[in-house]
Specification:
Elements: H1 2-11, E1 28-35, E2 44-53, E3 62-71, E4 81-87, E5 90-96, H2 101-112, E6 116-118, E7 126-131, E8 139-145, E9 153-160, E10 166-174, E11 177-178, H3 184-194, E12 203-213, E13 217-228, H4 236-246, H5 251-271, E14 274-275, H6 279-299, H7 307-319, E15 325-326, E16 337-340, E17 344-347, H8 358-361, H9 367-389, H10 395-416, H11 426-451, H12 457-469
Antiparallel strand pairs: 1-2, 2-3, 3-5, 3-11, 4-5, 6-7, 7-12, 8-9, 9-10, 10-13, 12-13, 14-15, 16-17
Helix pairs in contact: 4-9, 5-10, 6-7, 6-11, 7-11, 9-10, 9-11, 9-12, 11-12
This protein binds adenosine-5'-diphosphate and the ligand O=P(O)(O)O[C@H]1O[C@H](CO)[C@@H](O[C@H]2O[C@H](CO)[C@@H](O)[C@H](O)[C@H]2O)[C@H](O)[C@H]1O.
Residues 149, 151, 237, 331, 333-335, 349, 353-354, 376-377, 380, 444, 447 line the site of ligand LMANGFYV.
Length: 473
């Protein structure tokens, strides 16, 4: 395995989902579990899923790396090729599992058959497949990795029914960074689907498991999540960008997006716990915002000059009456929403902000965090077009989308008879919303500084604008 770990140390930093800042030191193998290859997949010697830890990193992370070991002369998808290693005295090709149909087929089978895999030897991990009650498994036909920037790796599985006709495909998201505890992407979407919500894709099933962490001991978490895939459907980011570029009115779509958001919040409030916040909860939330601003100043020192203005916004929110806390989306933006024909808006990726701890992301939160996320996204549409044009464009478009979205949310809650926030004054709600909008823009400063420096001006300008607009007179 040491040869494989060396190969992975070189390969890992080039992956979009690698969370470290530089090449990892020697990776540590925490455990592994094996999947059985089907007789349909020839030339496969082994399918093993390695759980490796980048222990030398400032914040050590555990990654899930499925590996398909194939004959050295196998025809391998170039994007998935990791390298050659010696296996039982013989050279073999190592393939990143999601890029290999043998892994996709085996993973889908683990879920559909409610299978289990107990790794062998020291540091063995365990994995359990669990189908959603009533989910029907069609026959695996082929698979491919979803392209695009992703924090995880999603595999699209094309399926065939008993008559050999193409059936609705599946998307299996393989979580790359593992944490002990529930992954909200799985728990929230499964709860929404079980409640009959049409605002998330139908759930097919999940893989969860256990592994040993040298610091934390025995951990349990989610490894993969499978849902129906809406083929050929665009996300709202692309729809909105095109509309703004063409100067097309987006207010009806923004209004219905607000209604869909209200529907999801109302369902989550019904099926998951709700908590009335006390002053300690509020203080802690505001403290997290202040801490985040500190991190952003380290990424972009020019923000230091805004410290008093930022604090004014947060202090006003701290003194406000807050709405009930409940489970929310957590990292809501236009890229997380699909416009599905005959179904309407469908929400994806309930994992929460990748830069927050899992414990935070699994706690009841403020619905305004989601509203703020989407408002920031309208600003990003204008910002992305402005970066491209070299001058400010589409600001009126963003303002109109913003107003329609908020109106749609209010109308949606009213239509559902949901009370969230209704007992609280409009001024208090506004103070909380503005604080979360500012907090999200500050989060985006950190995110863009680390991932897309060309876009850093978009949230940086927003921080300035939001603090100016809400400065105390
Ligand atoms: N069920 C689905 N149907 C169609 N497209 C999907 C589906 N799930 C995800 N996608 C596409 O995959 C992209 C990434 O999915 P997401 O869950 O956000 O992954 P990540 O956590 O890696 O960012 C989405 O923006 C969307 O375009
Ligand atoms: O989708 P992820 O969970 O990976 O979210 C992260 O990446 C997003 C970018 O892909 C980032 O979103 C920011 O950019 C979007 C445009 O690309 C914009 O619509 C969002 O409003 C903006 O926040 C997200 O913040 C980050 O967590």
């Amino acid at each position: 395995m040491s040869e494989v770990l060396d190969l992975l140390s070189d390969w890992l930093p080039n992956q979009r989902w690698f969370a470290g800042e530089s090449r990892p030191g020697r990776l540590e193998l925490l455990g592994s579990y094996q999947l059985r290859a089907s007789e349909h997949d020839s030339g496969v010697r082994m399918i093993t899923v390695a759980l490796v830890r980048d222990a030398a990193a400032e914040r050590p992370q555990t990654y899930q790396v499925p590996l398909v070991v194939r004959d050295i002369d196998a025809d391998v998808e170039p994007l998935g090729y990791i390298g050659a290693a010696t296996e039982h005295g013989d050279r073999a090709a190592l393939v990143d599992g999601p890029h290999d149909p043998a892994f996709a087929r085996a993973l889908m089978g683990l879920i559909a058959d409610e299978g289990s895999s107990i790794g062998a030897g020291e540091g063995a991990a365990e994995a359990y497949g669990q189908p959603m009650p009533g989910a029907h498994a069609h026959r695996f036909a082929s698979s491919r990795v979803l392209s695009g920037e992703q924090s995880n790796t999603s595999i699209i599985c094309d399926l065939r029914d008993d008559d050999g006709e193409l059936a609705v495909p599946l998307i299996i998201k393989v979580f790359r960074t593992l944490h002990g505890g529930d992954n909200p992407d799985v728990t929230l979407q499964t709860a929404l689907a079980a409640a009959g919500s049409l605002r998330v894709p139908p759930t097919f099933g999940q893989v969860s498991g256990t592994w040993h962490d040298p610091d934390a001991g025995e951990l349990q978490g989610h490894f993969a999540f499978a849902q129906e895939f809406f083929a050929g459907v665009e996300d709202a980011w692309r729809v909105a960008l095109r509309a703004a570029e063409a100067g097309d009115d987006f207010s009806q779509l923004a209004h219905s997006l607000g209604e869909a958001t209200a529907e999801v919040h109302a369902t989550l409030a019904r099926v998951m716990p709700q908590v009335a916040p006390d002053q300690d909860d509020v203080d802690e939330a505001v403290e997290q915002m202040r801490a985040r601003f500190g991190v952003a100043v380290r990424e972009l020192p020019e923000l230091e000059s805004l410290v008093d203005a930022v604090d004014d916004v947060y202090e006003r929110a701290r003194r406000a009456t807050w709405p009930s806390l409940q489970r929310i989306h957590g990292d809501y933006h236009l890229g997380q929403v699909l416009a599905v024909p005959d179904r309407g808006w469908v929400l994806l990726d309930f994992e929460g902000e990748p830069l927050r701890s899992l414990a935070e992301r699994n706690s009841p939160d403020v619905p305004q965090r989601d509203l703020a996320g989407m408002l920031r996204s309208f600003d990003y549409v204008s910002g992305a077009l402005s970066v491209r044009a070299g001058r400010e464009v589409a600001r009126a478009w963003a303002d109109s989308a913003r107003a329609s979205f908020l109106q749609g949310y209010t109308d949606g809650l009213a239509a559902l008879g949901a009370q969230s926030g209704a007992e609280i004054g409009a001024e208090d709600i506004e103070s909380v919303l503005v604080a979360y909008e500012l907090d999200k823009a500050i989060y985006e400063v950190i995110y863009e500084a680390r991932h897309r420096p060309d876009w850093l001006t978009i949230p940086a300008l927003a921080v300035r604008r939001l603090t100016e607009r809400h400065a105390r007179h």
